[in-house]
Structure prediction request, 817 residues.
Amino acid sequence: MADKTSIMKEAQKYLAKGQIDKAISEFEKIVNDSPDGNAYNTIGDLYLKKGDKKNAIDSYHKAANFFRHEGFSLKALALYKKVLNINPSEIEALHSLGDLSEEKGLTTDAIKYYLASADSMVKAGKKDRVLDVYEKILSLSPSNIPLRNKVAEIFLKEGLKSDATKEYIYIARLYDEKGDIQKSREYYNKVIDLQPLNKEAFIGISYLYEKTGELDNAVEHMKEAAALFPGETDIMLRCAELSLIRGDADGAKEYLNRIIEQDPTNLKSRRLLGELYLQDGLKEKAWVEYLPVLDDMILEEKYESAIKLLETFKKVDPLETGKRLVSLYRQIGENDRVAAELVSLGDALSEKGLSNDALSCYREALDITPDDQDLKGKIAEITQAEEKEEAEREGLEGTEIEERAAPEHISIKGEKTVDEIFTEADIFSRYGLVSEAKRLLEGLKHKQPENIDLHMRLKSVYLDTADKEEFVTECLILSKLFRRLGDADNADRMLKDAYEIYPEDPRLTERFESLLESTHYAAAGSEEPAATSEPAIEDYEEEIAEADFYARQGLIQEAAKIFENLHRIFPDNKEISERLGNLGQVSEVSETEEITGPSEIHAETFDDIEKEPVSTAAPSAKDELAGRAEEEKYEDFIFTEQDLVEAQEIPEPALDNDVLEIFQEFKKGLEKELEDEDSETHYNLGIAYKEMGLVDDAIKEFQTARKDPKRFIQSSTMLGVCYMEKGLYSLAIDALNTAVKDVGEKNESYWAIKYDLAEAYEKNNNLKEALNLFTDVYGWNARFRNVSEKVSQVRAQLAKGGEQEKPKGRKDRVSYL
Prediction:
């Protein structure tokens, strides 16, 4: 495996000399060895810097695909936005933005991007994909009539007549549901104008006649349809229904028998015919028709209806009804009824001379009701009769009786197989009924405690329901099961999954540290621990970068949580301890470590450059300064994200008039159909855009999230940070002032916002206000960030008569997500 750190250093050298192609080659070594979204993003930035937009877009797509596959959808979304900065009509980026927006519940954005992608597909001559996109659009707002009408018009314009008629039929049904019969009939007639032989339209119009009480018109209309569609079961079934409504039972029977002759599996026809036979008192004929209907009811778990119907036919066919009733009562857990039906079934079998099968039923019933003396008598009677018969045979023959195969035992157990339960749970999950899926799977847990598929499904369900503790429990069980099978990779992966979701769970601390140690020993090719105390700190660059980002934004608790977890794993790492100290957290220092006081050099963030492995020895002040100088030198030759992107303001997708009209129609009445979009999603999107340097997009998301009172403080804080980055200090002051007033208690978040507000005042040259706020923060915690230096700097500026020290120019840097 290539040394990532060495490759990064080599790339930096090439960048220092302006040799971008060679730097790209170095980064490509990383992705060739181990694909990485951050590296692909950096390659895209470098291609864009040299003006190669095609390869830049290709690299951004690779980065986005990597992040989507790994579950980091917000980072993927930000990358597609970068693609649109280069080419606003890029089809794959637009379509992917639609998919991601739909996943996040941002319906308006999803439809906007789907429409834009469809527009681009039409212009590029890729009409084969357009229909699928419109299907996605309509599925997001299924009852939006103006939207469907506009889409139907587009289909007609493109010559897609059959697709247009489908939309008109859908619209006719929507109007029917709303009670607007006239409009519904108008759209059914539109369909017939386009397709004179459209069955659905003919049947739909007949229902409209029925609703308005025009039965004669309905019958005449369906007679016309029957002539146009001879032998069509749908048409004949509708004719049968109308005959029943008018009281013409014989006419209905004629239609229904014709249907069943053509299609014996037509259950609706068989049910109607069965009802007619029951009304005539012909139970035997009715039972023949109802039997397949009953089996379908049982499959669909309509147990109560099935039981009621079976009781009706119990005397007609006691064996078939009995077997089904036993199964149904088992399904609903009524054991007393199970026992009673087993006895009835046993009696029926005994009358038929099937004594062995009857005995099996009686014995199963006795298991449920062990004190039933009558049942014991029935069993004894059959057993004695069998023994007597056998003895008589032995006496007559005088030879050993040949063994006989036992009659086939009637299967009356109604329990579902494991595969059936899995299938049912999957269906529940697919349709959003997660609690039902959870109930089914948990019910199976005690029967199949070592079934890996079961635990994987439960793990997924607990993730969907945000039940972190149960999620961790399943991960631990799976880890143990995989390890038993010798699958160490999957066992370790389960522990990592658990740690990512709930690192605070006390069950994980020891296990995860053991996992890290074993991973590091394996990497070293030795069964013994590596000599260094922090052998894999470089594996945590992404976590450190995330924590540093939180710290810069004033999200102290979030940053501290990450650094505290890292400190538990690497207790002797001075870099982590220093970061905790800068956050105002007291980190534990090992007894052997010499305390030299706070460092004068602040730790650099990890989102600009890749760090080298941390040395086990404490660096000298000289080494530390030299390292800092090297980093400063690197900052001089790398470049800003603004240099890499043509414009920070991302254009809205350009829509042609037809497409724009569709979007406008979609927005009509949208508030009635859709709930408010998720403020948390907007907030997280804002964070992702901010990390990518897409500040304008971040501002839009934070402004949307801010409307939710639960997200008001966080969103206002981030707005302040974004406004400062754009140099809009007065807006930053307003946003942060509003946020700090809304904080209920003076916790870490309160002081972080005050610090940001002080910086905004300082940059806006309101030095007195800045000094007062920095002093307040200093009084709370003198080690918070660099507040001590800030107090000294602002005080010095005020002493010089308000001359403000010019802020340092932004240093060029490459984005690493």
Observations:
- Residues 521 and 529 are 6 Å apart (CA to CA).
- DSSP finds 42 helices and no strands in the chain.
